[in-house]
C-alpha cells in the first residue's frame, strides 16, 4: 500500500514489464511533473521495481481454493553497494550503516520491552526474530536517486493496458459475491478496489518477496527512518503474534508493504477486517478479507459513496493556469463559469461538488477536475500519476472510454541534472525559495508559474525543455 511517515506513504507493487522499466526506481524520490514527495517513491518503487527475497524462507502453504496465486520465486538480489546514501543524512553514510549493522542483534533484542507492551509473547518474539539479519541492500533502495526518462502518459500507458483490464474483469466476475457484500457494507466502488488490486500487484502476481519482518527490522535499526520503521516492525510482530497471518505470508516490498493491495503493517492494524468471520484478518490469501479491508481503508479515508474521482475537462483558450492548484478548489458550477467542459461532452454531476484542477502535462495536455475521491486515492499513495491511473483504470473496468484528449508526447522529460539546473536558475531569478534537489513538487511548480507569467507564457507550471531553454536565456 504505502510507506507513510512525515513525508511518506508506501503502497504498491510491480507490473509485467517492470524489469525493463526502471529497476532502479525502487526508491526514487521524484516523478516527472508529479507531486514530488516520497509517496512517489513507494509508488514507483513498487510499480516498477522488481522485488527480491533477502534469504531463503519456508515455502508458503498452498492458498485456499479460489484465492490469489502466489508470485514465482525471484532471482537473488544484488548486494549492498557499500556506498554512502544519496540523501546525505549522517545515518546513511557507509560507516554509519556498517556500525548499525554490526549492532543489529542488540537493536532487535532491545525492542523486546516495546513488543511486550503490545502483548507479544516472549516465546513468539524469540521465534519470529531468531533468524533476522540486516538486509543492507535496502539502504541503496531507500536512498537512490535514479534518472527518469518516462513521462506521465508513458506510465499511464503501462498501468492501464488491455491485459490488465482483462484480468480485472475476470477478478470482478470471480469474486462478485464478495464485491457485492463490500459495496453494500462500505459504500466503496468495486471498480476502485479492483483497480488498486490490479495496479498494486497485477492481481496478486507481483507482490514482492522480501521478508516484511526482516525489512522493517533492518529499517528500524539502520538508516534515517528508524523511528518510523520501529513502529512498523513492532506492528508486524503484533500481526504474527495474533495469528492473522503466517510468517511466510508476510512477504512484500523493501519498505514492508505486503499483500495484493500492499498494506504496511500499521495500515493493516488500522484497516484490516475479518470479512468472513474465520477469526483471521488475512489480506494476502483470503479474497473476502482483502476486498473488505481495502474498502474499509478507503472509507475511513473519506470515500464518498456514489461519487466519481473526477472528470477529464477541456480548458478554454487563454485559460488562467494559476487556477490549476490543489489549494484552489471551487464548486463545479464555478469551473463551468470559467469555461471548462467535460471532454466527453457529457454534463457534470452535482454542481455543488468542490473540485480542483490538475493539469499534469501543462497547457498542451488534458486537464482534470479532481473531486474528494481523488484526494482519498492520494491518501492511499500521494502521487498524482498513481491516483490518476487508479481512477482511470476503474472507469475503464466499468466500461468507460480512454481519455479523449491527446498527451503532448513530443515533450521530452528532463533528466535529473536538468531538473536540478532548472531549480537553480529559478532560484537565481528569485522565483524558487527552496533548496534545489532535482525533485519537483508544489514549490517548483509555483516557481515555474511565476517565471512563465513574467515572460508572458501560459503559467501552467509544466517543466518542459522549452522552459529550461528560456531560463537559460536562449
Task: Please describe the structure with a list of short key phrases separated by commas or semicolons.
single chain; 474 residues; mainly alpha; five-stranded antiparallel sheet; two-stranded antiparallel sheet; 20 helices; disordered N terminus
Question: Can you walk me through this structure?
Answer:
The protein is mainly alpha-helical and 474 residues long. Helices cover 43% and strands 5% of the residues. It is built from 20 helices and seven strands. It has a five-stranded antiparallel sheet. Strands 1-2 form a two-stranded antiparallel ribbon. Helix 8 (162-174) packs across helix 10, helix 11 (212-221) runs antiparallel to helix 12 and helix 13 crosses helix 14 (287-300). The longest helix is centred in the middle third of the chain and has 17 residues, at 226-242. The radius of gyration is 22 Å and the shape is globular. Mean pLDDT is 86; it is low at 3-74.
Short synopsis of the structure:
This protein is mainly alpha-helical and 474 residues long. Helices cover 43% and strands 5% of the residues. Strand 6 and strand 7 form a beta hairpin.
Itemize the secondary structure elements and their pairings:
Layout: H1 38-48, H2 94-102, H3 104-110, H4 112-117, H5 122-129, H6 137-143, H7 152-159, H8 162-174, H9 176-186, H10 190-201, E1 210-211, H11 212-221, H12 226-242, E2 251-252, H13 265-271, H14 287-300, E3 310-314, E4 330-331, H15 332-337, E5 341-342, E6 354-358, E7 367-370, H16 372-380, H17 384-397, H18 416-428, H19 442-454, H20 465-471
Antiparallel strand pairs: 1-2, 3-5, 3-7, 4-6, 6-7
Helix pairs in contact: 7-17, 8-10, 9-14, 10-17, 11-12, 13-14, 16-17
Amino acid at each position: 500500500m504505502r510507506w507513510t511517515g512525515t513525508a511518506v506513504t508506501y503502497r504498491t507493487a510491480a507490473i509485467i514489464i517492470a524489469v525493463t522499466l526502471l529497476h532502479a526506481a525502487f526508491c526514487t524520490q521524484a516523478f516527472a511533473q508529479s507531486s514530488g514527495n516520497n509517496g512517489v517513491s513507494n509508488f514507483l518503487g513498487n510499480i516498477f521495481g522488481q522485488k527480491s527475497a533477502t534469504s531463503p524462507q519456508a515455502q508458503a502453504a498452498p492458498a485456499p481454493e479460489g484465492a490469489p496465486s502466489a508470485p514465482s520465486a525471484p532471482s537473488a538480489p544484488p548486494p549492498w553497494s557499500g556506498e554512502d546514501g544519496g540523501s546525505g543524512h549522517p545515518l546513511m553514510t557507509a560507516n554509519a550503516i556498517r556500525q548499525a549493522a554490526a549492532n543489529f542483534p542488540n537493536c532487535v533484542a532491545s525492542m523486546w520491552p516495546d513488543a511486550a507492551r503490545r502483548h507479544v509473547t516472549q516465546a513468539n518474539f524469540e521465534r519470529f526474530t531468531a533468524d533476522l539479519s540486516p538486509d543492507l541492500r535496502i539502504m541503496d533502495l531507500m536512498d537512490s536517486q535514479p534518472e527518469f526518462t518516462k513521462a506521465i502518459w508513458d506510465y499511464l500507458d503501462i498501468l492501464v493496458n488491455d491485459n490488465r483490464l482483462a484480468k480485472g474483469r475476470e477478478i470482478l466476475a470471480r469474486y462478485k459475491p464478495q464485491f457485492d457484500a463490500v459495496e453494500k457494507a462500505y459504500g466503496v466502488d468495486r471498480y476502485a478496489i479492483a483497480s488498486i488490486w490490479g495496479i498494486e500487484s497485477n492481481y496478486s502476481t507481483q507482490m514482492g518477496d522480501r521478508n516484511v519482518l526482516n525489512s522493517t527490522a533492518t529499517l528500524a535499526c539502520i538508516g534515517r527512518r528508524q523511528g518510523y520503521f520501529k513502529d512498523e516492525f513492532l506492528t508486524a510482530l503484533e500481526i504474527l503474534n495474533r495469528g492473522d497471518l503466517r510468517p511466510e505470508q508476510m512477504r512484500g516490498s523493501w519498505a514492508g508493504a505486503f499483500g495484493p493491495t500492499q498494506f504496511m503493517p500499521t495500515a493493516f492494524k488500522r484497516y484490516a477486517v475479518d470479512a468472513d468471520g474465520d477469526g483471521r484478518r488475512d489480506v494476502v490469501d483470503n479474497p473476502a478479507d482483502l476486498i473488505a479491508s481495502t474498502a474499509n481503508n478507503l472509507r475511513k479515508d473519506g470515500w464518498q459513496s456514489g461519487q466519481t474521482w473526477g472528470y477529464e475537462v477541456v480548458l478554454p483558450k487563454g485559460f488562467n493556469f494559476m487556477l490549476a492548484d490543489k489549494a484552489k478548489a471551487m464548486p463545479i458550477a464555478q469551473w463551468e463559469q470559467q469555461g471548462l467542459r467535460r471532454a466527453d461532452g457529457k454534463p457534470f454531476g452535482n454542481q455543488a461538488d468542490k473540485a480542483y484542477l490538475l493539469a499534469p502535462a501543462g497547457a498542451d495536455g488534458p486537464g482534470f477536475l479532481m473531486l474528494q475521491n481523488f484526494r482519498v486515492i492520494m491518501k492511499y499513495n500521494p502521487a498524482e500519476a498513481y491516483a490518476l491511473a487508479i481512477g482511470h483504470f476503474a472507469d475503464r473496468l466499468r466500461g468507460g472510454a480512454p481519455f479523449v484528449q491527446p498527451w503532448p508526447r513530443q515533450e521530452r522529460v528532463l533528466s535529473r541534472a536538468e531538473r536540478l539546473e532548472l531549480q537553480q536558475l529559478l532560484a537565481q531569478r528569485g522565483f524558487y525559495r527552496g533548496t534545489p534537489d532535482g525533485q519537483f513538487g508544489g514549490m517548483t511548480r509555483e516557481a515555474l508559474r511565476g517565471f512563465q507569467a513574467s515572460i508572458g507564457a501560459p503559467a501552467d507550471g509544466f517543466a518542459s525543455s522549452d522552459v529550461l531553454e528560456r531560463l537559460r536565456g536562449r
